[in-house]
Amino acid sequence: MLGLMQDWPLLVHKIIDHAALYHGEREIVTRSVEGPIHRTNYREIALRARKVSAALDRLGIKPGERVATLAWNTWRHLETWYGITGCGAVYHTLNPRLFPDQLVYIANHAEDKVMFFDITFADLVAEIAPKLPKVELYVCLTDAAHLPKAKIPNLVAYEEFIAGASETYEWKEVEENAACGLCYTSGTTGNPKGVLYSHRSNVLHALIAAQKDAQGISSCDSVLPVVPMFHANAWALAFSAPMVGAKLVLPGAKLDGDSICELLTNEDVTLSGAVPTVWLALFQYLEKTGKTLPHLNRVLIGGSACPRSMIESFETKYGVQVIHAWGMTEMSPLGTLGTLKHNVVAMPYEKQLDYKVKQGHPVFGVEMKITDDENNELPRDGKAFGRLKVRGPSIAKGYFRGEGADAFDSEGWFDTGDVATIDAEGYMTITDRSKDVIKSGGEWISSIEIENIAVGHPDVVEAAVIGVRHPKWDERPLLIVVLKPGKTATREQILDYLKGKIAKWWMPDDVQFVAEIPHTATGKIQKTALREQFGSYRLPTAAE
Ligand code: AMP
Question: Domains in the chain and their CATH numbers?
């Protein structure tokens, strides 16, 4: 017998309609790519999103066709997302930090029909456009006065594109499982793979994200997603904030400490989200200027591991609660969040910190387990570590065009490629990407754990640990360090600092100092590049 409840398809445009109707005056503030601060609200965004839909419809874009965006977080980018999905098409976020050849591969693989882009990327678009035969129209997210001079075919300014279009356009009523968004994973090996979100998965994910023990977001929040919309859906904030009517503050192209601090302060931001490197830059700015964070209440930190020292600084120095989160493009992206469960809240602060550095506990809608290589489930004891596998309604069941099928098993589990432990409380700790695990004498060493401790040294800005070949132990850890400007810590001082904090046999065999550590397009340490860089390096212990 079926239930007698209404069939109300979960469609993304219902989010913006709700925001427009019940939170219509709530502000969307952007540091525009052209320069000035721009202010609008949900009512306006919803009207202009309908114009985008109408303009795309007029152009002949059909449901299911892909429309690319190569853009920073701005109000226009937000309008395009809702406008693209509103006419049944699929928004496809391109990451401008990728190499031009990768962008060409991705846009051709997706068969993007239209490309919306920011003026900052005009030269990049001019470079790749001749290699994108499927793109029929380039829409620059600006007005006619700011239209770039770069040689781009079929170019129109966004404001012109939507000018004559109807703001009473009727959204296309596609079914809730219809595709609505596409984002390619950064893919450290092989070609990038497309994750194809549906309306249903995005709406469910926004509901999941908004929960109190996840983002805990409400209409009283002012939210600054520093995490770009092209990085895993801006961690759901472009959906969860309008869903609850939170104020949105969008940083445009300027993600440096000064610019972010200004927005945090002037726009009364209560919640923000970014990868650790962004917060490092903010800390350096705050230390230099002596400024504080008067309104900020909590920050979401993810994308790569958040060190304990960063959590301590935020919480004890600036009075900002840290929510360490883990997820993936394939998971929409949120998987676990490090909010404190009731029995952890009761613990002394030092003990709470032990939980906060973990990657968190799963939200409802994420099933999670760890297995050995033979797919046997491992105990949830905080010690056993193995392959982390997940399944749920906002997790991919395959990649676009059937690639990477080996990551999905017949029971619906997706192998994340991460190695993790899960403790008795359900808190998960990432120990490594499976490709980065260091195997020493048959045992595994967690590079992430050593890195997290090393960055706690007062002279260290960033640290990376890679496995280096060793004649006796197979692999041994090498610690690569970037020092703060003017700081002079030595190899011995850094190793001394680690003593007692990690097992003896985890101690790196050497420390190398570098001016910079390479990062991927989503801000992660690029271990493949480091392994290449240190390819001919020989450990001092290798002769033993
Ligand atoms: P992306 O799809 O670009 O968001 O990358 C997802 C990957 O980033 C995950 O599989 C992890 O390897 C890594 N990652 C994300 N969040 C964290 C975190 N909090 N700690 C450690 N690694 C993380």
Answer: 8-25+35-201 (3.40.50.12780), 436-533 (3.30.300.30)
